[in-house]
Every structure is written in structure tokens, then in C-alpha cells.
Amino acid sequence: MSTNVLLVDDSPTVRNILKIYLMNLKVSIVEAEDAQRALQLLRLVPVSVVIADINMPNMDGITFVKEVRASAQPQVQKVPVILLTAEKGEDLRQRGSAAGANAFIQKPVSHDELTKTVRQFLSGG
């Protein structure tokens, strides 16, 4: 079974950068342009890690995490979610953690931080 990483960001440019950064991890990339599509994909495709932007139209990343954690499917409920944000400040991180986010990465995303964080969850950390 391949290891799937779901990228959720309304910016195709950001998704492309993340794909390039993750190439050396030998994972399959699944993409969603918004949280609604990501929730649909999570029901259909086994995913090992989700990387989602906090600021997205229609449903923000924090609400997305709450929806993931409330899923009727145990494998969806348990998937690690890494949130990306350009905003600084503890309030957002606290709200994300309370919603069930597993990690946060500050934008602009660094290659090293992204691969280190994703590896941690792929290895069961």
C-alpha cells in the first residue's frame, strides 16, 4: 500500500511547492483545493498525513480539523493533521490544538521543517 499525503490549500502554487518539498519522502500526493473536497477525499482514499492551510475559503483549517476529528470513520478521525499558517500568534495555535491539529508549520514553509514534521508522523510519532 502506498503512503498518501493529502495537501489542502486553495493556492495551486503552494500545493506545487509542497509537492516538490515532499518528493524525497517517496509518498503519493493527493490534492484538494478546499476543505470540502479534502473531506470527500478522506472518505475515499487512505491517507497517512494531511497538510492543510488554515486560511481557506468556505471552511477554514481549524473547522476542517474539527470535521476530521468528528468523522464517523475511525481511520479518518485518527489521521494526523499539520496546519500551515502565515499568521503569527499563539491564539491560532491554541484554537488549532483544541480542534485536534497535530502540528503547525509557519509560512513561508521551510523544506527541512516540512519534511521533518511529515516524517515524524509517517514513522508513527
TrEMBL record:
Q: Which UniProt keywords apply?
A: Phosphoprotein
InterPro entries, per the entry: Bact_response_regulator, CheY-like_superfamily, Sig_transdc_resp-reg_receiver
Q: Keyword Phosphoprotein: yes or no?
A: yes
Does this entry carry the keyword Transport? no
Q: According to the UniProt record, list the residues that bear 4-aspartylphosphate.
A: 53
Output the SUPFAM superfamilies linked to this UniProt entry. CheY-like
Source species, domain of life: Bacteria
| Gene Ontology annotations of biological process type | phosphorelay signal transduction system
The record places domain Response regulatory at: 4-122
Instruction: Give me the segments passing through the membrane.
Output: none
The name of this protein is Response regulator
